[in-house]
Amino acid sequence: MFKGSRVIGTSDYEKEAEIIAKLDVLRLEMEAEYEAMREAKRRGEITGSIYLPENQTERLAELREEMKVLQEQQKELIVKDEIDQIYTEAGASGMNAGTWQDGTMYFITVPANKLELWFWMESERLLNAVFREFYTERDVVREERRMGVESDPTAKFEEQFDAMFWGSVPYDHHILGWPSDVESISRDQAERFFATYYAPNNITVAMVGDFDSEEALDLAKRYFGRIPRGETPPPPVVTEEIEQIAERRMIAHADTNPSVTVRWHTVPHVHSDLYALDVVAAVLSARTGRLYKSLVEAEQIATGEPYGFHRGMKYGGMFEVGAELAEGVDHQTAEQALLAEIERLKNEPVPDRELQKVKNQSLANSFRRLQSNFFLMLQLLWYTASGDWHYLNDSPAKFEAVTAEDVQRVANTYLTDTGKNVLWYFRKEGSEEDPELAALSGQAKAMAKQALAQIDQVTDPAELEQGLAQMQAMKAQAPPEFQPAIELIIKRATERIEKLRAAAGEEE
């Protein structure tokens, strides 16, 4: 989507379209070869992935070379990064995109007097999408998966834990997809997906800032109104998460500190029990929470900051507690300590003062998140994709209304023995975790780990600088528990930029 359209990003679309058509024909031939190789693998005649260079057939090698020739011809016609150039020259900044289980968002900050430019640019790449350099970009995504999942000390295990956790709702695979799916997807398949999900009947626009609402609506009708409604509406998700009737366990040896994670199924984002479960997480978390006071201060079982975390998504939810083990502590002891605090919540009402304290902290964080246009925009889109943007307005009062009885009820309803999913990490022999990353914990650590892996993959300093500016803007508005993680991300991004700039200077 960042590669342009029929009029943006190309010097001669008609010639380019001919090349794209030839690439698609070659790809169909390649897929026939791959299908034959899949059958050979099922018979045991091929070992390992059919996409490994050593497994490719002679004809497949020939087709790859033909594709390279065509891709080089296409490059001659491409105007590189023209979307970004147009926006930058107009004073826009921070163009990027992000995806998660329930949605994908594209965002940018533009001057108020360039609103019409934004409407034209975004409607143009939706109306006349080309999927330029599709197979090259597909290889980039495959490399992102290789670096971000398969080469990450824990991400590959977390992917397997997710696959174990979700029984029937389709959250059981990584956002980047399974390797064989990434390797095999065709431009035709991507276009059919695009026609279904990127149609105007499935799009939400969130605008935050200094603009005239009536003008914006007029521009929306003028530019987005020219995009036809999708012929095939997104199919409803009718498969519900199957009830878990037995505990599940996973043990992994990785280049990380020993830890214990316990996870349960809960409710979708729009469910009325969401708020009580969020209160449960708040009671357990942070340095003022029960897990820190019990596991770190009193029993010295854990290091860092043990956490409780709840997330409601569109079609399901999860509640998780976790802790990194202090030296010499065994996993069973740590797990029992985590579960003891869960049992305490089930059996003892949370005192009024403690309950009000976590409510006050949550309400303060909610207010802070409203102070940034960028964060306000993200929340509007996130909550819309999860079910209802009105959560932004309604959640403070509903959170405030949660009672001690509600906390006990949801703890007993959802955090059950048969519903447990447990992950034990053992430190791989001879390995040590990044000490700065090890100092973090919980969701802040997970966020930092993912961001640092992405930073290491970036080779364009300008791209990193753009991301760095966004992180610096986020830092002022982020909740206190995420501040150390953001500071580490900013530090590593700055170091990476300096390293890339130095390398470029040496090459010159």
SSE topology:
Layout: H1 13-42, H2 58-75, H3 82-89, E1 93-100, E2 103-109, H4 115-127, H5 134-150, H6 155-165, H7 179-184, H8 187-197, H9 213-223, E3 248-254, E4 259-265, H10 274-284, H11 290-298, E5 302-312, E6 317-325, H12 331-347, H13 352-368, H14 373-386, H15 391-400, H16 404-414, E7 421-427, H17 435-438, H18 442-457, H19 461-475, H20 483-507
Describe the structure.
There is one protein chain. This protein is an alpha+beta fold and 508 residues long. The protein has helices at 13-42, 58-75, 82-89, 115-127, 134-150, 155-165, 179-184, 187-197, 213-223, 274-284, 290-298, 331-347, 352-368, 373-386, 391-400, 404-414, 435-438, 442-457, 461-475, 483-507, and strands spanning 93-100, 103-109, 248-254, 259-265, 302-312, 317-325, 421-427. The longest helix has 30 residues, at 13-42. The two termini are 32 Å apart. The model has no long low-confidence stretch (mean pLDDT 92).
Q: In one word, what is the shape? A: globular
Let me know the average pLDDT: 92
Q: Number of DSSP helices?
A: 20
Widest sheet: strand ordering: 3-7-4-6-5
Contiguous low-pLDDT stretches (5 residues minimum) are: none
Strand content: 5-15%
Roughly how much helix do the residues carry, as a percent range? 40-55%
- What structural class results from the helix and strand content? alpha+beta
Biggest sheet overview: 5 strands, mixed
Give the topology string: H per helix, E per strand. HHHEEHHHHHHEEHHEEHHHHHEHHHH
In total, how many beta strands?
Answer: 7
Quaternary structure state of the chains depicted: single chain
Q: Give Rg in angstroms.
A: 25 Å
- End-to-end CA span: 32 Å
